[in-house]
Amino acid sequence: MHHAILRIDRRVYGARPDGHPCHKVLPIDVEQEKGLKVEITQCSPLVNSMGYSLIKLVDMDGTHPDIVDKVNSYKNEHGEATAVKISKTQSMVMVLNNNCDLASIVSESGCFLLSAIPQNDNIIDWRILAPNKVIMNKLLNRMRTEGYGVEKISSYPVEVESALTSKQEEHVHLAYSMGYYDVPRKISLEDLADMANCSKSTLSVSLRDAERRLVVRHAMDSLDSMKQK
Which pTM was predicted? Predict the structure, then answer.
């Protein structure tokens, strides 16, 4: 198998004149609503060109007190949305998008999308697992042919052995408990290395190898579950 982290520009040929596809599911004009910050925090492609997105709405000046009532249970030809208020000024919206082009490309590629973390409305980081490097490269070529910008952050074959060492277990547990894997991160790698009593480079290598092994374990478990259905 082959693992890669890809940084993708979701705009087609650097532009999306009709706006972000997930924004179309909302009953508001994202570009025109003053005082409302809209941030896509998580997304996941599904089958048949469908995709899920988790969107955070921030009422920055208190002019949108009814935003949850307006968005919750909203449906249109692009999909549907459900919303919940999480604080006085913030709400979370889950959007089911019926027309996600990237979701269609992934579902047809034969690759597994293990995580999708947006950096902003245009840029998203994907963690991908493919049967081999050839299929991984076919996915990259397909996305580029369709007009998406793709940067390969890392790419490597994965070994069958996926058990963590005791030191890796210790490092991963510390990183998780201190919020290193939160979005946004609650602790830097430098501060985490100080807590782990090791160098930044040592901790970085340990965490990367542990993450790779965990990805393999997760993927193999998923494949086993699919075979049993």
Answer: 0.56
